[in-house]
Write a sequence for this structure.
């Protein structure tokens, strides 16, 4: 099977896992459950759950224990998109060609259902304890939970989001941009791969290597996003282009130009794959996924 | 020591625990940490952490294991107030005589720092695993975590909030009001007392009794709120009165009148204390606290 077919097949498997963890739309709070499911089912690459699963497999872990974390990570990621789209933040009416959550369910429900997704992610992750068969597996679940919450919060994605919002439209230093990319984008990529590694049974040293690789992958992913915003067409990308320029956003491209930015993407992804290969664990699909990700056209 | 002095002393102890868990205001995301601390340090009765601690003590548990859960519960409660005050929800400029979080830090930071508090609550609760000395204690932490997340989310406080928001200003059935009170108000009271009981080593049967008592306490607490909105003065209450009438809000008072509502408060609190006393565990302070709570004048 070639990589694209394999990717499609695995994405479908992940969709099924994700759906199995969504709340039922019933009872008085039915609308909240509908709003939660609406945002999660809007589609997407399902990259983060895929990274959890494949990194877990790389270390010889069982898929089963990774499932709740995969669903939870996609809920955490989705919650951040729902809030990003709110009028007080980016004020976006459309995402992936569909109306954003607050446009369908109102702003109050946009806020509340976003939070409910984040909280539900924890409810789902905590069910992993019921799947853990021994003390060793429970210890892994505890470690993975800690990583997930740390990378999501003040010292991870939410912290990065806050600095991004606070400095919207202002000129930014390279140091600040790095902080924002490292947290707003890389943190959940790191959290995904680290949680996968931990659940798969990786040692602390191996988890540290995975974190470093994931950090590079996240950064390369974000710089590639900046590049595509300049070089791609709206048709290719499926969303408006030149948005960074319009919003006077400081990006890697505005800081160092397209050529150097592209060079950095190539270097970062090469280094990340080298780090992962250096662990002497096999997962060709994961390595190809990383390479394809950073060289992507959309 | 009389009850009021004892209450004051214990509230101060809880403030100290809470402060010890707050994030440091440093680094790029300093403003987010400041906004989080600003809302938590706005004051309040600290009722929920007090219920965790006292219920834990009632079952002979150690204070130490309860501490992270106490701090976390107050963060969860505070996050719900921060979001409730947002322009898209209740649009309140003041709470407890201070500007609300979004009035000081802007609406985007109001949304994000509220979420960050919720997520930080989980980070804090997960540190309880480091305090748990054996497998038995870790099992209690897992159970308490599950209760906290369940009572916070779609099937608890957030679900109640969503139905309240969705039906704002509309006439509501008694059934729907019960659902809202049970979830928006009682759920966190239940979560607090159940988590305390679990951490203290209560059996599943005992936890079920505690849940039932807490449900009654939460309902009585909310009905008393409705009554005070009609019978109290703004000076006594420290916030505007007759707000329910102005907002055309259906409450227990509009549904059944003040007299019957007051009667129900008395019955509910009496029943709750009876349930707790029936467990044959001692904690006079907790029993008095419950009685004082529901008969309160503010």
């Amino acid at each position: 099977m070639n990589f694209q077919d394999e990717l499609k097949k695995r994405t479908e498997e992940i969709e099924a896992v994700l759906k199995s963890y969504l709340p039922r739309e019933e009872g008085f709070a039915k609308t909240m459950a509908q709003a939660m499911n609406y945002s999660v089912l809007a589609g997407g690459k399902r990259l983060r759950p895929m990274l959890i699963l494949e990194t877990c497999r790389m270390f010889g872990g069982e898929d089963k224990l990774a499932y709740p974390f995969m669903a939870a990570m996609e809920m955490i990621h989705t919650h951040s998109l729902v809030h990003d789209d709110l009028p007080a933040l980016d004020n976006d009416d459309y995402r992936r060609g569909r109306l954003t959550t607050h446009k369908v369910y109102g702003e109050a429900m946009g806020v509340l259902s976003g939070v409910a997704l984040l909280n539900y992610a924890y409810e789902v992750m905590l069910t992993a304890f019921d799947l853990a068969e021994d003390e060793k597996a429970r210890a892994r679940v505890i470690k993975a939970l800690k990583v997930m919450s740390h990378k999501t919060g003040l010292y991870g994605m939410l912290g990065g989001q806050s600095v991004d919002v606070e400095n919207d439209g202002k000129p930014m230093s390279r140091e600040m941009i790095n902080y924002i990319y490292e947290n707003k984008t890389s943190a959940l990529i790191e959290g995904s791969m680290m949680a996968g590694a931990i659940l798969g049974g990786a040692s602390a040293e191996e988890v540290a290597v995975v974190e470093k690789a994931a950090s590079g992958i996240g950064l390369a992913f974000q710089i590639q996003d900046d590049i595509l915003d300049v070089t791609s067409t709206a048709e290719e990308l499926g969303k408006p282009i030149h948005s960074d320029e319009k919003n006077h956003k400081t990006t890697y491209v505005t800081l160092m130009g397209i050529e150097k930015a592209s060079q950095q993407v190539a270097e970062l992804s090469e280094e990340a794959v080298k780090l992962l290969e250096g662990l002497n664990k096999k997962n060709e699909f994961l390595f190809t996924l990383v390479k394809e990700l950073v060289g992507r056209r959309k």
Observations:
- The two ends of chain A are 23 Å apart (CA to CA).
- The beta strands of chain A are 94-95, 98-99.
- The mean pLDDT of chain A is 94.
- Residues 204-231 of chain A form the longest helix (28 residues).
